[in-house]
Structure formats: structure tokens, C-alpha cells
Amino acid sequence: MSGQEAHIENTLWMKAVVMGSIFLLIGVAAYATMGVGMANVRHHEYEEAVHEYEDAKHAYEDAKAANASEDEISQLYDLKTEAHHHEIDAHLSYLTWRTAGITILLMCGTYASFIGLGGFLNSIQPQDDGHDSHDDYGYGGGHEHHGSGSPIVFAFGIMLFLMGFPSFQATLKDMLAGNEAALGDLGMSMVGLMIVVIGVSNWWREDLPFIGNNEQLATSDPFAGQHIRKAGLWIFIMSEIMVFATFFSAYLRMRTEWCTGWQVEAGNCSQVNMLTASDFLRPNGAKLGDIGGQGDFMTLLPGAINTFALIISSYTIVLALKTANTKASEWKASQGFMGKIMPTQKAAIRNYLIATLMLGSLFIVLKLIEWSHLVAEGFTIETQAGSIFYIATGAHGLHVFIGLLVMLYLVFKADTVGFDEKNAQGIEYFGLYWHFVDLAWVVIFPAFYLY
Amino acid sequence: MGEHETHGIIENIFDGLLGKDIYFWNFIILMVFTLFEVGAVFFEGIPLTTVWAILIGVGIVKGYGIAAYFMHLKGDPRIYTRTALFPVLFVLLMLWGIGLSNPGSVQGLPDWCTPNWDYARNR
User: Do the Cβ atoms of B102 and A253 come within 8 Å?
Assistant: First the structure.
């Protein structure tokens, strides 16, 4: 994507560094207020609730041991149950704030690393004189478009990261547990991450000045005459469909062996032997021993909000593309509030992309809050149902997060050189990926949360 | 999005309705159907098969809305739709495999067509 048709001052990249700093500040502020301030208050309440529950439990057991009247025992049992529910609520409330604070900090830290490092690496490059340098690549000085090696660098970095990942995660686990850790084992993954950042930075440098001329067209069937990047993206989406189909087939195959609440209700078996995530999330879920079956409106709410968030974000990116594709002479600012926050075409595109970024970030935060609640309630990755749930929804969440990193760059480009009808393909092709992520959620949500 | 404009029956009904384009109405339909989907599991007394039918039906409508209009497969050349649908072959193979590998789901097939259940049970 190295069009190199618009002159880009290196100082422009410093704006990315400023954006990175802002993200870091937001992350630290969110962590301080939510992850520490609010979480500490909730933790204090949780500790009190634990004491209250312990007292109620002892009072009930003492009354039973002392052969107290049935009325008294029944009253104490109700108090114990109420204290237990209060303890669970207090624990989940604490987890909500703590997880939200940590997640926002980690997300903003990653945003800051990508956009800040990418901007910094580009800002220290020798100043581009703005000339098209196709001659250097042996293209004869015309305006023919040439490819980019950055995706290969990026893929190489990912490969190294994954090769080192087993020892990377083991070392991190040791560090978090306070055990002695061999820091050298982090090496390969860290080198991989550095190569990823370098690859991404170079990719951005190549794409930022691209103003949409000389888009390469496929010359042979079956995509003859189509934009080669769009065809490539659809083939990528095709491979992604197969990845998610694998998760679903594994899930369906395993479900045929489980006796779930649904199977019992359908009369196919009599005793529940496996709790699925939906038993913890939706109302009337099955119980197995003491766990499961506590689902209500509030437990399903994060998943439901996430579903709406992804649909709205799909629409906001459509609006960004539609605005970019509108001729400047035909574009008019809306009346009222929308007109105030989107006074110009450039601001409208940028703000629609920011809205998409925020909705996607909300998705990740709510997802991790929901996971923390599920784990606290006993739905862990150790069970078959937990394993497929966390892998499938985790893989989807990872796709959302990677999309957010790309979106960061789109926001930066929209705010600097801007998008118009000539270079709107960037938004269109990213939009295809984002809609696919939404589409995957359309299947994941009912299959894992409601069924 | 001029290159993605389509003129089917649905587009003729919705595009331009109340001054809004097809993307807006697609968005509204997706939101309404999601409400319907979430609501279905809250109502006690709805038969299980009905809830399944609702979840699958809503999923198909939402999937079509996203793929056809937001991903503009409806206005793009057919090759993109074929590319997107290509994995369906493998999904069908997987479903076939799930059916054959589960003793409870397929009954009455000839021996040569079913896996060795003894092996599966004793492995």
C-alpha cells in the first residue's frame, strides 16, 4: 500500500505519540479510580459481607447444636442465606470494578504502545521529500502501484511471538505467583513483539500518504477486474469462517454427549451432568450441586449490551464509510447536536471511527467483567463446557481487540491526512473485517449465552 | 457507497423510507431482532422447540442483514458471495462428522457407514 503520493511531514507522526500519551493517561486514571479507588471500597464492603456471613453461619450452627426452636432455626437459616447472597453480590461488585480498572489500563497501555511507538518510530525516520520513489523498486518511474513487505515482517513477528509463547506465559505465571522466573525465557516472544511493532509502523508509514490512486486490480479469474486487496480480504474472511466453524463443530460435538438442562427439559436424559455458560447467565439455567442456576437479567446484561454494542459499531463504521464516500461538495453538516459534534466532513469521519473504537473497547471491558463473574461462580476453563466457551469467546474477543488496534490507526489517519472518496477503501476493507466479527458474534451469542 | 447500490424488492421498500437509507433500516432491524432474541429466553412457558426456532430464525435474519447490506454482498459481484459461502462445504462435512461420530444421533445406518463404536467406547 505504498502509494507515497501525499507529502507527510515527520512532525505529523508526533501527533500519534501525543495520542499514545493520552491513552496512557486515560488508562492510569481509569485504573486509579475504578481498579483501585472504587475496587477498594467494594473490597471493604465484601470483607464486611464475609464477616456477616460467617457470623450468620455460626449463629445458625450454634442454634442447631443447642436444639433451638424450629422457628428460630428457620429464621437464622433465612438470615444465613440472605448474608450469603449479600456476600456473593459484594464479591461480584468488587470484581466488576477491579476487572474494569485493570482491563482499561491494559487496553490503553496496548493502544499507547502501538500508536505511540508506531508514531515515534516514524517520526525519527529521515524526512520524506514527497517524491514517488517507484524508480527505486524498478517500476520505471510510472505510477504503477507496488506491494509492501510489511505484512511479511508483521507475520514473521507473530510467528516468533507464538514460538516463544509457551515459555513466555509460563514465565509470566511464575512472576505473578512470586516464584523464581527465568526472564530469558521471555526473549523470543519479546523479540517477536518488537518485530510486530516495527512491521506495523512501517506499514502505517507506507499507507498514511496513500490517496487512493493506482489501486491494484486482479488480472486473472476468479477475481479478474476486482481490487486485489478486497479479494485478499474476502479470502482472509473465508479462512476466518473456517476457524470459527471449527470451534462450533467442537462445541456441537461435545454438546451431543452432555446432559444439559436443555436436554433434560427435552426428555433426552434425566440428570444434568454438565453446566454450560448459559446456565450461569440466562434465567432458569440448570443447577449442578451448589453451582449454576443463578442467572437473571443482570447476569445476561453484559452479553446483551455487547451484542448491541457490536451492532451499533457496525453501523457507525458504515456511516464513516458513507461519509468518506460523499463528495465534499455534496456533504452537509446535520442540524442540532449531531451537527455540533460533527461540524465538518473530516470530523464526522473521525468521530464515527472514534465511536466504533469506544464501542469495541466497551465490548472487551464487559467481556472480561463477565468472565471474572463466571470464574467466581465456578464456571472455569477446567470443565469441557468452560474450555470451549473461553476458547471460542476468547478467540472472538481477540479478533475484536486486533480490530481495535487497526481502528486506532484509522482514527489517526482520519484526524491527520483524512479520508475521502478516493482513499475510503481503507475504511471499507477494515469494515468488512469488523462486520465479520459482528457476524461471528451473531452466532456465538445465542449458541453460548442463550442455548 | 455508490458502487454497492442494489435494487431488489427489499431495497425498494426500505431505501428512502422516511428519508433514511437501507443501512439505517438494516441497523434498526438488527436491533429489534436482537431484542426479540434476548427477550425469548426470558419468557417462561415458551416451548423449547419454539425458543430454538426463534434463536435460529433470528440468527439467519441478522446474519443475512449484516452480510448482504453491511458487507454489501448484495451489490458486489457474485464472486465475493461465493468466496464467503465456500466454507459452507466444510461446515456441512463437519456436521456430517458430528452426526456419524455420535451413537445417539444416527440410528439405523448400515455397518459400513458407521464408525467402530466399540473402539470409541473402549479407547
Answer: yes
Domains in chain A: boundaries: 7-130, 139-208, 218-451
Which residues on A lie below 8 Å from B84 (Cβ)? 234, 237-238, 241
Mutate to test the interface with B, among A223, A241, A443 (most CBs of B within 10 A): A241
Residue B5 CB neighbours (<10 A): 13
A266 touches chain B (CB under 8 A): yes
ipTM for the predicted complex: 0.83
Q: Which residues pair with A291 in a beta bridge?
A: A288
Residue in this structure with the C-alpha cell 524498478, named with its chain if needed: A138
For chain B, give every domain's residue range: 1-84, 87-123
Question: Are A86 and A53 a contacting pair, CB within 8 Å?
Answer: yes
pLDDT, tens digit, 9 for 90 and up, residues B44-98 = 677 777 888 888 899 999 999 999 999 988 888 889 999 989 988 888 888 888 7
Question: Which CATH code for domain A139-208?
Answer: 1.10.287
Chain A residues whose beta carbon lies within 8 Å of the beta carbon of residue B115: none
Question: Which chain A positions have a beta carbon within 8 Å of B62's beta carbon?
Answer: 442
Residue B56 phi/psi, 5-degree rounding, is: -70, -45
Report, as an integer, the average pLDDT of A136-140: 40
Judge residue B102's burial from the number of C-beta atoms within 10 Å of its C-beta, 0-12 exposed, 13-18 middle, 19 or more buried.
middle
| Listed residue (A312, A316, A392, A377) closest to A350, CA to CA | A316
More confident residue, A106 or A143: A106
Alpha helices per DSSP H over A112-149: 117-123
Cell of A169: 506465559
Q: Which fold has domain A218-451?
A: Four Helix Bundle (Hemerythrin (Met), subunit A) (1.20.120)
CA distance A419 to chain B (A): 14
> Which 3 state secondary structure label does DSSP give A178?
coil
pLDDT in tens, A40-90: 999 999 999 999 999 999 999 998 888 888 888 899 999 998 998 899 889
Model pLDDT for residues A363-412, shown as the tens digit of each residue = 999 999 999 989 888 888 888 999 999 999 999 999 999 999 999 999 99
Distance from CA of A64 to the nearest CA of B (A): 38
